[in-house]
Design brief:
The structure holds 2 protein chains of 2 kinds.
Chain A lengths: L1 H17 L18 H4 L10 H5 L11 H4 L3 H16 L11
Chain B lengths: L13 E10 L5 H17 L3 E17 L2 E13 L3 H11 L3 E13 L12 H5 L6 H8 L8 H5 L13
Antiparallel strand pairs in B: 1-3, 1-4, 2-3
Helix pairs in contact in B: 1-2
Classes of the chains: A mainly alpha, B alpha+beta.
Amino acid sequence: MSRTDDDIDDKSDDRRGGKGGRGGGGGGGLNRRKVCRFCAEATTLIDYKNPQLLRSFVTDRGKMVPRRISGSCARHQRAISTAVRRARMLALLPITVGGE
Amino acid sequence: MARLQSLSDAPGTSREYETVYILRPNTANDGVAEINTKVKGIIEGMGGKILKVDNWGKRRLAYEVAKERKGIYLYWRYLATAGVVEETERNLRMLDLVIRFMTVRLDDSVDAEARPSEIDDGAYERAATTAADEEDMFLARGDAAPADDDDEFENPVAEAPPGTEAN
């Protein structure tokens, strides 16, 4: 599994290089690589009973944050999406935050 | 009533489930206890094993459910076999105090004997006691409180003696 991760890393690095190498690596900024939060700290479990945690994966309007923004990996994004849907069912998270 | 048994379930094992249900915010402790006793009766009567019962207290709902803005959350975790969840949910559906419920399957093929239960003597009693939420305490202190939740307003922080609150 780590091997494929490395492969993906290499590929995206290549692509970045091919774009003209605008990334000077000047500390964060454009090319800072996002890491899935739940892969980084394996102790944090994704659970629909923890709305505080899920709030960080939901926008102010109640919509889910896409992977390209949150940086979650596919597996954990799937778990988050299940958890958010369950939490919405129990009114722990809003389905939508309407503009009145 | 013959049920088709699932072929994926190992014989002689149970499934682990958790059920959360939300009660109307003005449910008295007696009412909570009554529903809990009913649910307990169904699960244990059908050969299930209860692992945990918890009252999360009165919480603000993220959106309005059955015209309520708040609800009392009850959390159950248990081991059960086929049909128990259906029967439990069928009963919850019939109760007017229950405004929402959800059951999630946590684990398959659990050996019921090997799983310790967190239930002790006071567990059901504690589950029936809804802690007063902060807003109610605040409203009870101030004079100019909106008078929509009458009965909570009269019995604010201190535990009301059982039976005094109207159901």
